[in-house]
Fold this sequence. Notes:
298 residues; 13 helices
Amino acid sequence: MLRFFLIPSHDRRLIPEGRLSGPMPWVIAIMIFLTVLAAAAGLAFSEAARSVSNDLSSRVTVQIVEASSELKASQSSAVAARLRGLDIVDTVRVLPEQEIEDLIEPWLGSQDISEDIPLPALIDVTLSKTAGEDELSELRAAAQMMASSARVEPSTGLIEPVIDLVRSLQWIAFGLVVLLAIATAAAVIISARAALNTHNETIGIIHLLGGTDRQISKLFQRRIALDALLGGLIGLAGGAAIIWLLSIQLSALGSGLVQSLGLSWYSMLILAAVPILGMLLAMMTARMTVMGALKKIL
């Protein structure tokens, strides 16, 4: 790759290089900026969906629906004690009534809900393995021995619609990355054809002096690759600044699902590689465009 850019200075003067003076680097900068944002969104959504799924895959919720508060309290204590004795159970936590009211307050208001509506007792159970059908059946049997109204539900089922939405947004973001790559290639094709038309006489002289299509193509590839790399670095810097500002705002929200939208170190590496991938795409597109046009000229 390094040898590709080590072209003698007298050869480089045949196709002058603008160094950000033309529109091409700025078009690439905009494309890379948008690509970095779209890729960051896709990676963040992917990691959030995976993180939430992993966290909830081994957790279940036990509900005990009972009108009598005394009977409900005794049944929830009995069910919790019974579940703690199972080998597949790691932890069991009975949610206090105030915490349950806090969970439903955004939907039902801040009045004294428990006096108007009989709230179920909730038990949060963490298993030592993923909550499959066999594990759920064992938990249901154990819970219903102590309370016939007990219901056992996997925690993933409660948030599955949200996870499906996050995964849909993930694929939309990755689709935008593909569309931006196609738009970048189209911009490179237009730029390469414009450069060929501008230097048409120079190309004819190089041919008369014995220059090959491959040598000419290499000159155009180098120019477009440098424009793409410079523009890509500018776009990456802008995208990184936006991602940093958004990460600060998201972390301040304090929501569990929102906070899981962070990027891991390998996602950061993928984003850092976007300008290099953009440069490679520009090089390949320029080569195919230039070689195809030179064959038609001759």
